[in-house]
Amino acid sequence: MITGYAVVQGPTDSPYESASFKLRISIPSNYPFAPPKVRFTTPIYHPNIDSGGRICLDVLKMPPQGSWKPSQNLSTVLTSIYLLMAEPNPDDGLMPEITKEYRENRARFIEKARASSSQHALLSPKEGGRSQRADSEKEESASSSDEADGAPSGPMKKQKLQQT
Q1: Residue 79: which residues within 8 A CB-CB, separation 6 or more?
Q2: For burial by CB atoms within 10 Å, which of 5, 22, 103, 135 has the most?
Q3: Which residues are catalytic?
Q4: Predicted pLDDT at 124
């Protein structure tokens, strides 16, 4: 199994805007025939992501419960996660209380999501937040700048994968 990390910036016009979230990606030995396992290591207040960072997203599951296909890649997975951050899916909520709040009191959900992001995520310096946490700096120093393999750029930053 190969394990690595990615950093996803919060989508514009979302409660996660100006925040960056770290993901742990584990690629199984039978990839691309099985989906990667992806988990948020940065806490996030979201209806489709539980307190352990597990993500409820069809592209991360094998059929018939999910929609993973061998033709998909890590860029597709990270883009799907980014889109889920922008538009949570209340019809497939993983956190019942947050899902209910998202449906019934969107303003309160946004307030709590922003507060959680301010507390846990890496915030852009222009927003007055901290630019890095100490534990992230060590792993960031191992990041790879090689983007030739189709890894995402822009709101998602590729980091070096290590075999475990």
Answers
A1: 152, 156
A2: 22
A3: 56
A4: 77
Domain that holds residue 133: 2-163
**Distance between CA 9 and CA 6 in Å, rounded?**
10
Q: What is the mean pLDDT of each run of 10 residues along the chain (164 residues)?
A: 96 96 98 98 98 97 95 96 98 96 98 97 67 39 36 48 55
Cα-based distances in Å from 45 to 50, 66, 78: 8, 23, 18
Give phi and psi for 147, each to the nearest 5.
-115, 15
> Looking at residue 126, what is its pLDDT?
57
Residue with tokens 């909520």, as numbered in its chain: 93
Given a contact cutoff of 8 angstroms between Cβ atoms, the answer to whether 20 and 82 are in contact is no
Residues paired with residue 24 on neighbouring β-strands, in sequence order: 5, 39
**C-alpha of 81 from chain center:** 5
Strands (E) across the chain are located at 2-9, 19-27, 37-40, 122-123, 156-163
The closest alpha carbon to 130, from 9, 18, 45, 51, belongs to 18
Provide the number of structural domains found in the chain. 1
